[in-house]
Amino acid sequence: MRRTAYLIAPLWSLAYLVLGLAWLAGLGGNPADPAVDTDADITLIGMWGPTAGAAILAALGAAGLVASALLRRPGRAAVPFAVTLGLLLAVVLPDYRVLVHIAYTPIVLVLFLLDRMPDGGRLWPWPVLNLGLMCAAGIALLVQAKDAVRADGPPDAGSLARWNRRGRWAVAVAVAVPVGYAFTRVMWALDIPFGISRDFLDELGDARYAGAALGAMGVGGAILTLGLVQRWGEVFPRWMVGLRGRRVPVGLATVPARLVAVTVTSAGLMYIRFAVTGEFGERFGFGDGQWAAILPELFWPLWGAALAVASYAYEVRRRGSGVPEVAVEKAPPTDRAAHQRGPEREHDVPRQALTMPR
C-alpha cells in the first residue's frame, strides 16, 4: 500500500504537468473547460476558466514533483510543503462529486449486474475521474509526509493514554454527524417535511429515497466507526465464519476511514463555500427556510476531521504500543503442567510486572 502511495504522487504530478501544458496549448479534455465539465464552475479550478485552470493544474503537477523528490530525502524540511499541497489536492480543490460517486459505485454496479442500469447513467465520467485522481495524489502525498515524521520506537504510556481519550471523543463526533444527516433524510422518505416545507418535499419526489439511501450508508459507516474504539474492531467477532478470532488488519480499518474523512471534508468545504457566498440555494435548488437541506452538510468537515483523528488514534493503539496488536489469552496450566514446572521462581514473574510503577 505504501509503495503504491510513493508511486501515485510523482506519476500524477508528471502526467498533470504535461497535460496542463497541453491544455494550455489547446488540447481537448481540459476539465476546467465548461464544454468538458458542465459543472466546472463549482470547483476552485474551473471557476477561473479553462486557461487559468490549465495553468493551475500544470503548476500543481510541478509542485507535486518537487514535493515527491524532497520527501525522499532524510529529514522533515519538506513535510510542511507536502502536507499543504496534499491537503490542497485531496480536500480543498475537489468537490462533492467524488463522495457521491464513491457512494453510488456499489449501487450502480449492482444495477449493472442486474441489467437495470438507467438510461444515460454514467459512472465516473472524465471530469469526476479527474477530481478522483487529484484526490488520490493528495492522499499519497499526505501518506509520504506522515511516514517522514513517524517517530522511532513506540510512544510512551502517556501518549497512548492521550490518544485513547482523543480517539473516544473523535469517534463520538464522527458518529453523531452522519446520524444527524441520516435522520433528516429518513424523515423525508417517510413523507415528514422535517426542516423543509411541504412544497419542497413534494418537489423532491423520488429523490427523497436516494437521500435516505445515502443516509443509511452514513449510518452503516457510523456503526463501523464505533469499531475504532471497540474490541470487535481489533478482532473479528465470532459470527464471522472463517475470520472469527483473527486480528483485523490495521489498514482494513484505517484506509476506508481516511478515504471517507477526505471526501466528506472536501464536500463539506464546498457546501460551506456556497453557504457563505449565498449560492447554496441557487446551486442546489433549495429555497429560503429549508434549513434541514443545508445545515447537516455544513458539519461534514467536522465529521472528516474527527474521523481522521479517530483512525490515527486506532493506529497508535494497534501499532504504536510496542506490544502485539491483540493480546493472546493463554489457557491456565493444568495441574500436571504446574506440577512438572515446579514452584514459581523469581524469573517466572512477567517482565511487565517488574516495570510497573509502584
Q: Got a strand count?
A: 0
Q: Report the mean per-residue pLDDT as an integer.
A: 84
Give the ordered list of helices and strands. Answer: HHHHHHHHHHHHHH
Q: How far is it from the N-terminal to the C-terminal residue, by CA?
A: 43 Å
What is the 3D shape? globular
> Which residues form runs of ≥5 with pLDDT under 50?
321-332, 336-358
Largest sheet: none
Q: In which range does the helix fraction lie? A: 55-70%
Query: Structural class of the helix and strand makeup?
Result: mainly alpha
How many domains in all?
Answer: 2
Radius of gyration: 25 Å
The amount of beta strand, in percent, is under 5%
**Can you count the helices?**
14
What does this structure look like?
By secondary structure, this protein is mainly α. 65% of the residues lie in helices and 0% in strands. The chain contains 14 helices and no strands. The chain has two domains: 1-150, no CATH class; 155-320, no CATH class. Keywords: Membrane, Transmembrane, Transmembrane helix. The chain crosses the membrane at residues 7-27, 47-71, 78-104, 124-143, 169-189, 209-229, 250-272, 292-314.
